[in-house]
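Work Package 4 report. The design task specified in the project plan requires that, given a folded chain encoded as structure tokens, an amino acid be chosen for each position. We show below one input record used in the internal validation round.
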């Protein structure tokens, strides 16, 4: 059981890393990362929120060890909140990954 818990923790860390990395930031990996950081500089209207949601779906779908069950992206006061409901293929367990980004502090995760 501890092995599965560690596996889920590692998967979440990998996804978080991609969410916090600006797309194109990694040398030789132009598609690694997300548009979240650059999007925080824009007014978070429904189009930007949809773009962020689509980008998060792309990120999770690029990991063959995880399935995305559902996603919610919300703009709260000064915070962007991403909730991803995941299923891990190794043991078919489900979990929620929540990432919040502070709009005022250039995306620093809260």
């Amino acid at each position: 059981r501890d092995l599965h818990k560690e596996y889920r923790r590692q998967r979440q860390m990998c996804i978080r890393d991609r969410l916090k990395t600006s797309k194109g930031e990694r040398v030789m990996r132009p598609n690694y990362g997300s548009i979240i950081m650059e999007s925080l500089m824009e007014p978070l209207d429904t189009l930007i929120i949809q773009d962020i949601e689509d980008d998060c779906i792309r990120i999770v779908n690029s990991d063959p060890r995880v399935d995305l069950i559902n996603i919610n992206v919300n703009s709260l006061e000064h915070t962007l909140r991403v909730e991803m409901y995941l299923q891990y293929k190794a043991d078919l367990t489900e979990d929620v990954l929540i990432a919040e980004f502070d709009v005022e502090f250039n995306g620093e995760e809260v």
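Strands lie at 66-76, 79-88, 94-102. Validation will be extended to a larger panel in the next phase.
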